[in-house]
Write a structure and sequence with these properties.
By secondary structure, this protein is α+β, with helices and mostly antiparallel strands. The protein has 19 helices and 35 strands. It is elongated and about 120 Å long. The relative contact order is 0.06. It binds guanosine-5'-diphosphate and magnesium ion. Guanosine-5'-diphosphate binds next to helix 1. The site of guanosine-5'-diphosphate has 18 residues, from helix 1.
């Protein structure tokens, strides 16, 4: 596909017999009714499809049935459309399914449309003028306000050119669907093609798919290989969001796949039966009671749902509120998906809304933060959303869980997480897998750990310290190992705890002071180090504790043991390496003991053990009476 070509999905809408299918045929040359029964009865029962390429725009038309009995088929086709072609016959004007289809488009968040005043050959000029006024009144204050109303006749072909121009202009205003997100294709048909096997079709919702890809069929989770692809009736290597797409799948019978199932990127999305949503009720609908049953439609799926209103007994006509939907069947939903609800009986469209949290928790009285959380999901920036998600997950949240809820790709999540981590609002406890925890929760865990280590000292004064395992166990089994490790690391860096062999300890204030004294004594001495005994003897703590501190400093490599009774500060040894390097540059790579003593200003007592240490470190090599500086 060339980059200049734009793919647009156009859905028809309108009352039965207003000329939708005939108009699609007049535009594309393809009659969209494809079932024998449809042809025999002259009505559209299920979705029909046709394509048109016109001046740099590829249109995929989804023709829907107008009969009230088949609105559910209409719904399967309406999700994913970019542009509605609202068909109104000049001789009948606004009829019940004109209203219902239009409501559905509005609730699904369709942003643009063109109105076709069809059968204009059957109406005189005055009638057409009147029709125009009535339609303008009908769409006032909606997304179709100001949309072109094009008079057409499929019979005389009058107005078709104007209609194409109107479609093209509307198409220009439509922003391309998100091809960068994960692949998602809600399936509207599954059939077998002789010699090819199973083929499914649908409107490609997001992302892209290519021949040879492994995709996942949800809800079953079966992994399937894409054997071939078609868009717009032509074989292609790759299909993108916004295209009508037919996928030839290897390794599955077409009868195992049904409308409502979803093809998606492998291992990314999950199904759900409980979603928190913003629910909007149409002004003409009766009030909706808490726990009412409804027909739920999202993507191409239809199922039954129970509505749990959040903090209300009922939803008034024309009103909107937060609710939890409990679904009878597994649905693939992510934040931002639109849906439609229809009354349980008699079946009419009563409202719709937007998914906020597709993996909602059960309602509990304790959960007081829910409304605020949902408000953030609805209105917040991605920073806000990620932060609130982390705050609501005491144990931290993984990239995988964030993807399932939002459909965001991992790269987006990582960069948002880094921004929040820089602002100290969030802690990245692990990068692979990415695990995030709210900073406040993380600090709490750190505090708990520290308190546990201190209590251990009090309760077990004779033991060296608490073990890692014991400390971890004190958090309970539900803290992730990555979080524990990160909290431990933080406490170590803050010097609030210290590792003593396999034990974790905290140091008393006098011990911290003593440790500082030891460090300073060796740091100040440079290479002319004092005897260890001397240093320890000056401390105001007993020998056992000072020995322990010395061990810790050696383990932390602040101090380095060079021989049985000589210990140096790490910085002093670094400085010595620097001196040797300089010597080598000026005087060559050989140095004898006298020269070494002169260079460092130390006596033989220190010089010999130091040279032996340097040999062991492979900084020098003994050659007769001399050393070669390496
Ligand atoms: N006179 C006239 N009849 C039309 C026109 N468009 C469609 N029809 C007729 O109206 C009837 C219903 O058309 P159809 O496309 O099936 O309507 P749909 O139910 O909206 O898809 C058919 O008999 C068509 O031949 C038109 O522009 N002029
Ligand atoms: Mg039709």
């Amino acid at each position: 596909m060339s980059n200049s070509t734009k793919s647009i999905i156009v859905g028809t809408a309108g009352h039965i017999d207003h000329g939708k299918s005939t108009l699609i045929e007049a535009l594309t040359g393809t009659h969209p009714d494809r079932l024998d029964e449809e042809k025999r009865r002259g009505i559209t029962i299920d979705l029909g499809f046709a394509f048109l390429e016109d001046e740099g725009v590829r249109y995929g038309f989804v023709d829907v049935p107008g009969h009230e009995r088949f609105v559910k088929n209409m719904l399967a086709g309406a999700s994913g459309i970019d542009l509605v072609l609202l068909v109104i016959a000049a001789d009948e004007l606004i009829k019940p399914q004109t209203r219902e289809h239009f409501d559905i488009c509005r609730l699904l968040g369709v942003q643009r449309g063109v109105i076709a005043l069809t059968k204009s050959d059957l109406a005189d000029r005055d009638t057409r003028e009147l029709a125009r006024m009535e339609i303008e009144e009908f769409v006032k204050g909606t997304f179709l306000a100001g949309a072109p109303i094009v008079e057409v006749s499929a019979k005389t072909r009058q107005g078709l050119t104007e209609l194409k121009t109107a479609l093209r202009e509307a198409a220009r205003e439509i922003s391309a669907k998100d091809t960068g997100r994960y692949f998602r294709l809600p399936i509207d048909r599954s059939f077998a093609v002789k010699g090819f096997g199973s083929v499914v079709t649908g409107t490609l919702f997001s992302g892209h798919v290519a021949v040879g890809d492994e995709v996942e069929l949800l809800p079953s989770g079966r992994v399937l290989r894409v054997r071939g692809l078609q868009t717009g009736g032509k074989s292609v290597e790759r299909a993108e969001a916004g295209q009508r797409t037919a996928v030839n799948l290897a390794g599955i019978e077409h009868t195992a796949i049904q409308r409502g199932m979803v093809l998606t990127s492998r291992g990314r999305l999950r199904t759900t039966r409980r979603a928190d949503v913003r629910l909007e009720l149409l002004p003409g609908a009766p009030a909706l009671k808490h726990r009412a049953q409804v027909h739920f439609h999202a993507g191409t799926l239809e199922t039954i749902g129970e509505v749990y209103l959040l903090g209300a007994r009922e939803l008034a006509p024309g009103g909107s509120g937060l609710a939890q939907l409990r679904l009878q069947d597994e649905a693939v939903l992510v934040r931002g998906d639109r849906f439609i609800v229809r009354q349980f009986s008699p079946v009419v469209t009563i409202g719709g809304g937007v998914v906020l949290d597709p993996l909602a928790r059960r309602f509990t009285a304790k959960d007081t933060g829910r409304a605020q959380f949902l408000a953030t999901l609805e209105m917040g920036s991605s920073d806000d959303i990620l932060r609130t998600m982390a705050e609501r997950h005491v144990l931290g949240i993984t990239a995988e869980e964030i993807i399932v809820r939002t459909g965001w790709i991992e790269g987006e999540i990582q960069s948002t997480a880094r921004t929040l981590a820089d602002k100290k609002l969030l802690r990245i406890v692990s990068n692979g897998p990415l695990i995030l925890i709210a900073e406040a929760l993380f600090a709490e865990i750190g505090k708990k750990l520290l308190a546990r280590v201190e209590r251990f000292h009090k309760e077990n004064p004779l033991l060296p310290g608490i073990t890692r395992e014991e400390l971890k166990a004190s958090l309970g089994r539900r803290v992730r190992p990555e979080t524990f490790a990160a909290a431990l690391q933080m406490l170590l860096e803050q010097k609030k705890i210290t590792l003593h062999g396999e034990f974790i300890i905290t140091l008393a204030p006098e011990e911290l002071r003593a440790r500082e004294q030891i460090t300073q004594a060796f740091a100040k001495a440079g290479l002319a180090v004092p005897s260890v005994k001397e240093v320890l003897a000056q401390l105001k703590i007993e020998t056992a504790r000072s020995e322990k501190l010395l061990q810790i400093l050696l383990r932390e490599k602040v101090l380095v043991r060079v021989s049985a009774d000589l210990i140096f500060h790490h910085d002093a040894l670094d400085a010595l390496s620097g001196l040797l390097a300089q010597y080598k540059k000026l005087k060559g790579d050989r140095i004898g003991v006298p020269a070494f003593k002169e260079l460092t200003g130390i006596t033989r007592k220190y010089a010999i053990p130091l040279l032996e240490y340097l040999d062991r470190q492979r900084q020098t090599r003994r050659a007769g009476d001399e050393r070669v500086i390496l």
